[in-house]
Amino acid sequence: MVPKTLSLDITKLDESAKARLRGMIRFFSGDKNNTPIQVVDDGIVKPCGMIYITKEIIKEFEEVLGKERVGMI
């Protein structure tokens, strides 16, 4: 079974939101990495390693980016 990937669309996102997003990715990476993560910037997919993910963590990403920019694929 292929693990799901957290996909974050950062197209046309301002620099302060990108900085906050980078901090969140660093914060949620650690010993329990269980989900690959990727960012999509202007149609270009960039893998970003793996992070620990829960429904609550997904909601935090949605608060920063908006629900339409966060998805599990």
Structural notes for this entry:
34% of the residues lie in helices and 30% in strands. It is α+β, with helices and mostly antiparallel strands and 73 residues long. It has one domain (6-72). The mean pLDDT is 92.
Question: Which short descriptors sum up this protein?
Answer:
single chain; 73 residues; alpha+beta; four-stranded mixed beta sheet; 2 helices; 30% strand
Helix content: 25-40%
- How many separate helices? 2
Strand residues, percent? 25-35%
Low-confidence stretches: none
> How many individual β-strands?
4
| Major beta sheet, strand line-up | 3-2-1-4
Distance between the termini: 13 Å
Q: What coarse outline follows from CA principal-axis ratios?
A: globular
Q: Kindly state the mean pLDDT as a whole number?
A: 92
Overall tally of domains: 1
Main sheet makeup: 4 strands, mixed
By secondary-structure content and strand pairing, the structural class works out as alpha+beta
Secondary-structure element order, as H and E?
A: EHEEHE
Cα gyration radius (Å):
11 Å
Strand and helix map with partners:
Layout: E1 6-9, H1 15-28, E2 35-41, E3 44-51, H2 55-65, E4 70-72
Parallel strand pairs: 1-2
Antiparallel strand pairs: 1-4, 2-3
Helix pairs in contact: 1-2
